[in-house]
Design brief:
Structural class: alpha/beta
Low-confidence stretches: 1-31
Largest sheet: 7 strands, mixed
Number of helices: 11
CATH topology of the largest domain: Alkaline Phosphatase, subunit A
Radius of gyration: 22 Å
CATH architecture of the largest domain: 3-Layer(aba) Sandwich
Helix content: 25-40%
Distance between the termini: 47 Å
Number of strands: 11
Number of domains: 2
Strand content: 5-15%
CATH class of the largest domain: Alpha Beta
Strand order of the largest sheet: 4-5-1-8-9-2-10
């Protein structure tokens, strides 16, 4: 245990140091006087117990619910929504693949299920070293989908994430990477030419398939070009212990703070501006004090007091990590305000009540981003239907600087000033 605590202190020390991205005159980047917008989407695969999550009062002065108590000090910085969901999703646990898109990934045509984070990442492109960064604890979620319908990979180990973000490749590795990228580029040139020749004699359905294929090819080309652009630019240097590891993938008390601190470092260094963080679906025992039963089993609690108590420990921990992240962003200065002013932090799940496998009334919180926050909002519409979550996503994308009228079938926007 002492080894783990020492490792954690090393990460926390790293998170507190002053860091800055090197100047990028060689690639023509210019520093803007206006701080860039950022987006962090935190998702829980197994929902949140609604009786403990949703506050019983509305408005700016709402009383935090038991699960939301860690956010009590940030009520002016966030909005909690009741009665918001994805109206077209009835996929039970499969909803974790659709929480950031509102589209059933298994039934979507490739490219129809692009997620909000990947639309934002496409907008940023390779202005940062990584268009987006993705982490998950307790297994992957698969909630991020590229414009061509490709599932985005998530990092599950903090040391792997640290090396990816902040450790420079050796010269030999750079040469090998350059050769690999050149070869990939040649292959893409070849297959693109073949696809265009096939399209001349293809029928309409086949042309649609080729269009999807060429979209994926263009994404791959952009990725190669982006990696090449940053190949010779040194990564931001962060001092950290080489032996930093948790003792298992259920050690959430160690893993979660480490991973989230690395995201803060990535924001401070402008290594990326779009992030997703997930708490995955599994039935392992999460190593938190007071928890001795498998997570998935606890979500099917049967209203048994001991199971509800353990479930609340886990869910309050999730919200506590969000609160800790918000606090760090609020403490970090950016322009005339804080990093929180320029960073939207979203928390949600595709399950409203895992005990019933319900995809209705999802647990949703959004913080920061320069919004005029409203406390606890009842999003039930006059027609008694719940507000589509993609309405909120449309608002977030517009706040991010993207010109969009409706994201994935949204019916409007959400009033956040």
């Amino acid at each position: 245990m002492r080894h783990i605590k020492n490792n954690r202190r090393a990460f926390l020390k790293a998170a507190g140091i002053s860091i800055a991205l090197p100047a990028l005159e060689s690639v023509g980047a210019a520093k803007s006087a206006t701080p860039p917008k950022r987006m962090i989407c935190i998702c829980s695969a197994l929902g949140m117990n609604p009786e403990a999550f949703f506050p019983t009062t509305f408005g700016k002065d709402f009383t935090p619910s038991p699960t939301l108590m860690p956010l009590g000090g940030f009520r002016d910085d966030l909005t909690v929504f009741s009665h918001m969901d994805h109206p077209a999703i009835f996929t039970k646990h499969g909803s974790m693949n659709s929480i950031l898109s509102g589209i059933d990934a298994k039934r979507a045509v490739a490219g129809q299920n692009v997620s909000i984070d990947q639309l934002a990442a496409t907008h940023v492109g390779y202005e940062t070293r990584f268009p987006s960064v993705h982490i998950s604890l307790g297994g992957t979620q698969g909630n991020s989908w590229s414009p061509s319908g490709i599932k985005v990979r998530e990092e599950v180990n903090p040391m792997d994430l640290f090396k990816k973000l902040f450790v420079n490749d050796s010269e030999a590795a750079k040469k090998a990477r350059k050769l690999e990228l050149d070869q990939q580029g040649s292959v893409l040139d070849l297959v693109r030419g073949q696809a265009k020749r096939l399209a001349k004699n293809a029928n309409a359905p086949d042309r649609d398939k080729l269009d999807e294929y060429l979209t994926a090819v263009r994404e791959a080309e952009e990725r190669i070009q982006g990696i090449q652009r940053w190949q010779d630019i040194p990564k931001t240097k962060v001092d950290i212990g080489d032996d930093t590891n948790s003792h298992g993938n259920m050690d959430y008390a160690t893993l979660a703070p480490l991973m989230f601190d690395l995201l803060v470092l990535a924001i401070q260094s402008d290594t990326s501006r779009v992030f997703t963080a997930g708490f995955g679906m599994h039935n392992h025992v999460i190593e938190l004090d007071g928890v001795n039963t498998g997570y998935h089993g606890l979500t099917h609690h049967g209203n048994l007091p001991d199971r509800l108590k353990q479930l609340r420990i886990i869910e309050t921990f999730y919200i506590g990590q969000m609160a800790r992240l918000i606090g760090k962003l609020k403490e970090s200065r950016s322009g005339e305000g804080s990093l929180l002013d320029d960073t939207m932090v979203f928390f949600g799940s595709g399950l409203g009540d895992a005990a019933r496998h319900s995809n209705r009334n999802l647990p949703i919180v959004v913080a920061g981003g320069g919004f005029q926050h409203r406390g606890h909002v009842d999003a039930l519409q006059p027609n008694k239907l719940q507000t589509p979550l993609n309405n909120l996503y449309t608002t977030m994308l517009q706040n991010f600087g993207i010109e969009i009228d409706a994201f994935n079938g949204a019916t409007g926007t959400v009033d956040l000033g």
